[in-house]
Specification:
alpha+beta, six-stranded mixed β-sheet, four-stranded mixed β-sheet, globular
Length: 525
Amino acid sequence: MKRIAAPAAVCAAVLVASGCGGASPAAEDQAVVDGATFTFGIDSDPGNLDPQSGANSWVQQLGRFGYDPLVHIDADGKILPGLATAWAVDGNQVELTLKKGVTCSDGTPFTAANVVSNLAWVAEPKNKSPLLGVYLPAGTKATADDAAGTVTMTAPRVGSFVLNGLAKLSMICGKGLQDRKALAQGMVGTGPYTLTSVAANDQYTFTKRDGYTWGPNGLSTTTQGLPQKVVAKVVPNPTTAANLLLSGGLNAAAVIGPDAKRLQNLFTAKMPLLVGEMWFNQAAGRPAADQLVREALTSAVDLPQLAKVLTSGAGTAPTTLSAVVPLACQGDSVTAALPKHDLEKAKQLLDKAGWVAGANGVRSKDAKPLALTLSFNTAFGTGISAAAELASKAWTELGVKVTSKPQDTTAINGSLFGTGDWDIAWVGVGASSPDQLVPFVSGPVPPNGTNFAHIENASYGEGVAAAAKLQGADSCESWLKAEAELVGDVDVVPFANDVLQIFGKGARFENLGGLVPTSIRMLAG
């Protein structure tokens, strides 16, 4: 499963996640060098590179090199200046003061009017941005004062963690605002790098910008050790990625599963990640639209055992639907709400739902067999394949005909948000605050929204409405109560947290929801 780069990201890692980079003393003490090239592995081609159009986590990751957000957020959850140097939240209004002297990669100045254009495009429902409601509140309106360098945005419901969302919303500028089609295979932003070469399904090359001085904590591209070039290379197979790391063919790659054990002597930046999260297609006519079926499927499998197999014994049980650090809300919305493992009860639930056991071992209803597909992300290596085999065995014993469907990140995104041809999916939706999950578990379905599982949970909706009236930590109790409604109705089943390790050789870096471009330092030797 990969995260839905909540767009989230979901991590496939479908949609988009985070954590603090850990470093060995040797890496911290090693001298840095200028002028080098940093090459990192991505497990699939990102497709359309427009950072406001794509939910693919690799779209968001590559976008961090070419674009900046209005604010940054550090590993402790502190909001830091980005393109905005000051901000104020008052009720349903946010006022931002922009940094002076910021320029776009095409040489044009970045203005308050540019910010308004960005917010308006994402907020316009007809544009179908998967980030609407995730990083930007629905119904957002904004006005600009270019002379003062300020932007005022309002929304019917700004929500509990509006600045956390703005910290992940890339700002487009210059010609990119006039020609959105050019962003499919190009970038026009204020980021520290420019995209200089695209070879789809192979690699993407970035070159460091001159004159960039507005990075986190005032960082500039004159900082020693920043790579002159960055290459994102498509490496679908985790074993191949591990081999390239060891041989020096890659400077960084995220590797999960048994191959990670070969890399423990390398530099590593770690990130907590919700890797085991089960979703059911509840579209009309799908078997899992029935809660009894969802509960039966969940009760039939031993979730802790699945987690153990998936994570090679390193995983932990999730306690919230958000796992990306810094977490906005700590607590437990999951444990008490999850169905318990009970195969006999699962059989009784399917009996009650009208799925009758057949002579061939497969249940049927109205002469239609209970045949389901299980989609999962191949980026998670042999562990997820083994876990899928274990789950399929349990479901077969339950009377389900299961077809496993391993897919790479791009393909599984296509199934969830495009064709809708799936029944059970193991994908992690990466989020750091509970409000970022709302569009994935409620509201419009694809192609008009991101509610890919077609969830309709009235109790959750009521809980969201109550939580969104509160700000920050004061809202967490209400948010967690709302999440428990989703788990209790088996709309989403989180079963495994793990630590995603981005391994490095010849470089060090931080991992906060992915590689932080301005943290990369190339090492001597």
